[in-house]
C-alpha cells in the first residue's frame, strides 16, 4: 500500500505546495491551525521517529474527532483540481445500456469495452461544483470527503474499488505538510505555470522546484 501510494502522494504534495503559494490567506489559516496544535512542543523535543508517532496520535483523537480540518480541506481541494490520477479506466463486465440525453438516443456499452472516466474534466464541470475553477477549501471543511457523492469525487475511486489507503494517504500528506510548513518557507524556482506530462500520473514536467528558507523555531 505504501509503495502504491508513493507517486500519487508525491504528486498531491507537489500540487498542494503549488496551489497555496500565491494564496497567503489560505496559507495563513493552515499555519494558524498547525500552530494551535500542541504536538509541536513535543515534536521539537523528541526524536524524529517519536515525533512522527506524536503527529499520528494527535492528528486523530480516540473519538475519531478529526483535527487539522482546514488543512485536510485544502488537500481535498488540491485533489479535486489536480487529481494525481486524472483518468480512470474500466472494462465493462457485461452489456450496459445508458439512457439518452436530449436526443433521447440510448447508448450501449458492450462487454469488454473500455470506459474512460476523465476525472480532471469532471472536477471542473459547473454541473457538479459551483464556480469550479476557484480554489475553495471550504467546500470540504464541514464534511471532508463526504461533502459530495462518491461519483462526483472519484479521486480515491469508488466502492467496491475504493482505495484502501485513502485515510493513510491523507494522514501522510498532513504529516508532511505540517512539518514542511513549520520548518521552511519556500519560493518557486520557475515563475511560469507548470507544464504537465502525459501519462497515468499528473506529474509536472520539471517537477515543482523551490528555494527553501529555514524558519526559526520558536
UniProtKB/TrEMBL annotation:
<dbReference type="Pfam" id="PF00067">
    <property type="entry name" value="p450"/>
</dbReference>
<keyword id="KW-0349">Heme</keyword>
<dbReference type="GO" id="GO:0020037">
    <property type="term" value="F:heme binding"/>
</dbReference>
<protein>
    <recommendedName>
        <fullName>Cytochrome P450</fullName>
    </recommendedName>
</protein>
<comment type="similarity">
    <text>Belongs to the cytochrome P450 family.</text>
</comment>
<dbReference type="InterPro" id="IPR001128">
    <property type="entry name" value="Cyt_P450"/>
</dbReference>
<dbReference type="GO" id="GO:0004497">
    <property type="term" value="F:monooxygenase activity"/>
</dbReference>
<dbReference type="GO" id="GO:0016705">
    <property type="term" value="F:oxidoreductase activity, acting on paired donors, with incorporation or reduction of molecular oxygen"/>
</dbReference>
<keyword id="KW-0472">Membrane</keyword>
<dbReference type="InterPro" id="IPR002401">
    <property type="entry name" value="Cyt_P450_E_grp-I"/>
</dbReference>
<keyword id="KW-0408">Iron</keyword>
<dbReference type="InterPro" id="IPR036396">
    <property type="entry name" value="Cyt_P450_sf"/>
</dbReference>
<feature type="transmembrane region" description="Helical">
    <location>
        <begin position="37"/>
        <end position="61"/>
    </location>
</feature>
<keyword id="KW-0479">Metal-binding</keyword>
<keyword id="KW-0812">Transmembrane</keyword>
<dbReference type="InterPro" id="IPR050121">
    <property type="entry name" value="Cytochrome_P450_monoxygenase"/>
</dbReference>
<dbReference type="GO" id="GO:0005506">
    <property type="term" value="F:iron ion binding"/>
</dbReference>
<keyword id="KW-1133">Transmembrane helix</keyword>
<feature type="binding site" description="axial binding residue">
    <location>
        <position position="163"/>
    </location>
    <ligand>
        <name>heme</name>
    </ligand>
</feature>
